[in-house]
């Protein structure tokens, strides 16, 4: 796959935001997102859920971030 992939924050700690390069170009199925930062640390009971979307395809990833840099 080659093409744009977008990342969005769909849930996490109240008031948490995601900044950085939110759209990356995939080459041979791999996309590199740089400088992703969340505004608040998460906890095991309130992890971040990120959604990756490209065309008609999407998938989610659940992570706990003790720091703010992903």
Explain the layout of strands and helices.
Elements: E1 3-11, E2 18-19, E3 23-26, E4 37-38, E5 48-54, E6 57-63
Antiparallel strand pairs: 1-3, 1-5, 2-4, 5-6
Q: In terms of per-residue confidence, which ranges show pLDDT below 50 for 5 or more consecutive residues?
A: none
- The secondary-structure element order is EEEEEE
User: Could you describe the largest sheet, including whether it forms a barrel?
Assistant: 4 strands, antiparallel
How many strand elements? 6
Can you characterise this structure?
By secondary structure, the chain is mainly β. It contains no helices and six strands. Strands 3-1-5-6 form a four-stranded antiparallel beta sheet, with no helix packed on it. A two-stranded antiparallel ribbon has the order 2-4. A hairpin with a 2-residue loop joins strand 5 and strand 6 (57-63). The radius of gyration is 12 Å and the shape is elongated. The two termini are 24 Å apart. The mean pLDDT is 88.
Quick recap:
Helices cover 0% and strands 44% of the residues. The chain is mostly beta strands and 70 residues long.
Annotation keywords:
two-stranded antiparallel sheet, 70 residues, mainly beta, 4-stranded antiparallel beta sheet, single chain, 44% strand, 0% helix
């Amino acid at each position: 796959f080659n093409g744009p992939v977008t990342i969005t924050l769909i849930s996490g700690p109240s008031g948490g935001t995601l900044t950085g390069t939110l759209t990356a170009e995939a080459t041979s199925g791999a996309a590199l997102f740089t400088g992703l930062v969340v505004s608040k640390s998460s906890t095991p009971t309130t992890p971040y859920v990120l959604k990756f979307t490209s065309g008609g395809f999407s998938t989610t990833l659940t992570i706990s971030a003790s720091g703010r840099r992903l």
